[in-house]
Amino acid sequence: YLSSRGAIVTRLSAIEELAGMDMLCSDKTGTLTLNKMVIQEDTPVFCEGEDRESVLFQAALAARWKEPPRDALDTMILVTSGQDLELCNVFTQTDFVPFDPRTKRTEGTLRGPTGAVFKITKGAPHVILNLCANSDRIRDA
């Protein structure tokens, strides 16, 4: 039925997910979404010492900050958030995994100014939550 209506399905599991929907809202023209995201002023954080600005900075580190943004999320973080991306340059990005719809996140491997190597990620909240050491505390908040 979907192919006869001109729909192209790239993942078979998408059909299964579609079957579980009660309502699908689409903005084909972009008049509602404008492909533009905004950052809420009230940004909840769950680690001492972190705030809205530090979360945005870390999100920039989880992107390719030296390249033009490729999607609405990176545009919001790298262009419209007001971040000073020069601060990112004390880090060296040694590896980058772009957004993957299956894992629902991006991941960067960075070397910090002290030489320490670490990974940083951004993506779907439920996916990131499952990666957090304090995920139970966050779920209960």
Biggest sheet record: 3 strands, antiparallel
Low-confidence stretches: none
Strand order of the largest sheet: 1-2-3
Number of strand elements: 3
First-residue to last-residue Cα separation: 44 Å
Mean pLDDT: 83
Helix content: 25-40%
Output the radius of gyration.
18 Å
Structural class: alpha+beta
CA-based shape: globular
Content of β-strand: 15-25%
Number of helical segments with 4 or more residues: 5
One letter per element, helices H and strands E, the order comes to HHHEEEHH
Description:
This protein is of the alpha+beta class and 141 residues long. Helix content is 28%, strand content 16%. The chain has a three-stranded antiparallel beta sheet with strand order 1-2-3. The mean pLDDT is 83.
Compose a concise summary of this entry.
This protein has 141 residues and is an alpha+beta fold. Helices cover 28% and strands 16% of the residues. The chain has a three-stranded antiparallel beta sheet.
